[in-house]
Write a structure and sequence with these properties.
Elements lengths: L1 H39 L10 H15 L15 E3 L9 E6 L10 H9 L2 E6 L16 H16 L6 E6 L1 H12 L3 E7 L8 H4 L2 H4 L5 E3 L14 E2 H18 L8 E6 L7 H11 L5 E7 L10 E5 L38 H8 L6 E3 L11 E3 L6 H11 L2
Parallel strand pairs: 2-3, 2-4, 4-5, 5-8, 8-9, 9-10, 11-12
Antiparallel strand pairs: 1-3, 6-7
Length: 399
């Protein structure tokens, strides 16, 4: 009996020892990643009144800090940009556009073209920790993202009396809404897949702690083949997004926003809590000039005065469902459109991701986690066949 107890104690001691060693190694690796991020990615250019000078400073910074997997020419996809309203159309104001987590200003390239056609000046900004390497987010704070957005808005408003609108994609939709709550003079919001709350909130509330032990949700810099956004997902980046949703929740309190809003989302979005977004749309957005477009394959969904349900699947395009990012891109986009050159694969695990990436079969396209109807890999839907329909709704809303 004594021998059995002794063996059990030894076995438990060994398991504890293994766990401690694993913990120590994890903490050491996390500290190494964070130290590299803190040293290598410092110096992101601060917003300034001369936006063209800011663009050049960001370009120089990204060229200096760009991850090795990207070509020098890829940097241009990540640069902030400014577009002037088309001549010969009625001038309508300015749009500040804010991208999402791990994304870049390129996500607004098609939207910006539509806005300038309609008489808007456009600025698409780049948030710190984006555009160069996912490692730049390992020590990032949501406060820097929020302060950067605030500064960019303030600088573009200074000395001008034209109407100011804000557009946001995903996490950028959270930032855009915070800015609208902080500034009474915002003329309207254009929100694509606004991530007011994540469908994984029950996990995200622990992400700040978990990031200390494991740096990456997925990827870990294994493969970065998308020139406009990151594949690898740092847990700290996710934690900071969650912190922004908490800021927004405090800003809402018992308040409502009374300004024109057009929001676009997919019911199959793997990131956004769609039911929560609908509640925010119905209960917190008070303007009669508001519209929510939801892409869905659920035929039981019926339109309301302010919510349109539109078809999500296009079998003739091998499109099973609309995705988080797909809603914002035009079919004509050279990278992500119908004939686009970039394949975005589904899967937050390497076997699924690589199975899609290296498949020679004719992919299906859908939201993250969309099941294949026949075993052929499903890649991400990256464009919106109804893109023109979105801007038809935009025109109607602003009349």
């Amino acid at each position: 009996m004594v021998c059995l107890i002794s063996r059990q104690v030894d076995h438990n001691t060994m398991k504890i020892s293994v766990l401690l060693r694993t913990l120590i190694v994890s903490l050491f690796l996390s500290a190494c990643f964070e130290a590299k991020a803190e040293n290598q990615y410092t110096g992101f250019p601060e917003p300034q009144a001369d936006f063209q000078a800011h663009i050049e400073q960001v370009r120089e910074y990204l060229l200096r800090t760009q991850m090795s997997q990207r070509k020098e020419s890829d940097v241009e996809y990540n640069i902030p940009f400014e577009r002037k309203a088309n001549e010969g159309v009625e001038y309508r104001g300015r749009f500040l556009l804010i991208h999402g987590l791990s994304d870049s200003p390129y996500v607004f390239s098609d939207v910006a073209a539509e806005l300038t056609k309609r008489g808007f000046d456009v600025r698409a900004i780049l948030l710190p920790g984006h555009g160069n390497s996912p490692e730049a987010q390992l020590k990032m704070s949501h406060k820097r993202w929020l302060e950067s957005a605030r500064q960019q808005l303030s600088l573009w408003k200074t000395g001008n009396t034209v109407p100011i609108y804000i557009g946001g994609f995903s996490m950028g939709g959270v930032l855009a809404t915070i800015l609208a709550l902080e500034n009474d003079d915002i003329a309207g919001l254009l929100l694509f897949s606004p991530a007011f709350r994540s469908s994984k909130t029950h996990l995200l509330r622990w992400s700040g702690i978990y990031s200390k032990f494991k740096p990456w949700v997925f990827g870990g810099m294994i493969l970065e083949d998308n020139p406009t956004k990151y594949n690898s997902i740092p847990i700290n980046g996710v934690a900071q997004y969650y912190n922004l949703t908490k800021v927004l929740r405090r800003q809402w309190a018992d308040r409502k926003l009374d300004l024109p809003v057009l929001a676009i989302a997919s019911s199959d979005d793997s990131v956004v809590d769609i039911d929560f977004m609908v509640r925010i749309f119905n209960n917190r957005l008070a303007s009669k000039k508001k519209k929510l477009i939801i892409y869905s394959n659920d035929e039981s969904k019926a339109d309301t005065n302010n919510i349109d349900f539109r078809i999500s699947a296009y079998p003739e395009l091998r499109m099973l469902s609309q995705s988080h990012q797909g809603v914002i891109m035009s079919p004509a986009n050279p990278l992500f459109g119908q004939q686009g050159s970039v394949l975005v694969c589904n899967g937050n695990d390497w076997p699924t991701f690589s199975g899609c990436l290296y498949s020679k079969e004719n992919h299906w396209f859908g939201a993250q986690h969309a099941p294949s109807p026949d075993g052929v890999p499903v890649a991400r839907t990256t464009y919106n066949p109804d893109f023109d329909g979105v801007f038809a709704a935009f025109d109607k809303m602003l009349k």
